[in-house]
Amino acid sequence: MEVRPFRAKVQQIRHLTSDIREVTLEMVEPSSLSFQAGQSIAVAVPAPTSNSPLLRYFSLASSPRLSTHLVLLLNSQDRGRGSTFLLKKNIGEEIQLYGPYGSFLLQAEPEKELLFIGTGTGVAPLWSMISMLLEGGCSQPMKLLWGLRNESDRYYLKELEAWTTRHKNFSYVLTLSQPDPAWPGKKGRVTDLLQQLSLVDHLAAYVCGNRAMVKEVHDLLKGKGNCAIYRERHSETL
User: Which residues are within 8 A (CB) of 154 and not within 5 positions of it... i.e. 6 or more apart?
Assistant: First the structure.
């Protein structure tokens, strides 16, 4: 898929939590972007000491079926140049972008059960993948394991519940690493959930998070059997 420059304007910035922002970009030129679920785009950030912009990469959270609008998930506390640049933009303001990039893609393995494992905003490419699969009527069993810190960090809960209601082959587990004592759900890191798996040979796992988490998940699953593992390291400076 060809990487090319394009322009989009900020259509909406939605506050999902105190820190997480959902940024929706509307394509300007061209009017749509062809990409695959799991891919990323680069935001061109002006460099004060150079004529060439800095490129900062973000995974797309939107489904490829909605190619006229692109959704990004940003943590306002990251303080990265890309996040800071985007979150200072006004609604309607245009930005220069490049893409799509990346080989973190869904593989054709219809006999496998799909396991999506993410932490924080690392859920973005997984969200794109799951959205596309469910919209396309995929019947493979699929589960999302999502690790967050505490109750206030949760978002997309209505969307997750809607998916579980409409699609019997989809399920999810949220686990919190620092929950309040009264939290009734799963507690601990997302890797704790994987410790409970006994068989993994029937799984295809898609993993996105920080480098340490991705490596830990990879090593844990490989230690349990012959699990197909596809990885993305979530960082805007990749």
Answer: 17, 148, 174
Tell me the per-residue pLDDT of 151-170, one tens digit each, with 9 for 90 and over: 999 999 999 999 999 999 99
pLDDT tens string 36-70? 999 999 999 998 888 888 999 999 999 998 899 99
Region for 71 from its dihedrals, namely left if φ exceeds 0, alpha if ψ lies in -120 to 50, beta otherwise: beta
Output the CA angle 224-226-227, nearest 5 degrees: 85
Q: What's the pTM value of the predicted model, to 2 decimals?
A: 0.94
Q: Which structural domains are found in the chain, ordered by start?
A: 4-101 (2.40.30.10), 113-233 (3.40.50.80)
Tokens of 190: 């997302």
- Closest of 43, 49, 117 to residue 86, by C-alpha: 43
pLDDT at 204 over 80: yes
For residue 119, what are the CA distances in angstroms to 125, 134, 138, 142?
11, 21, 24, 17
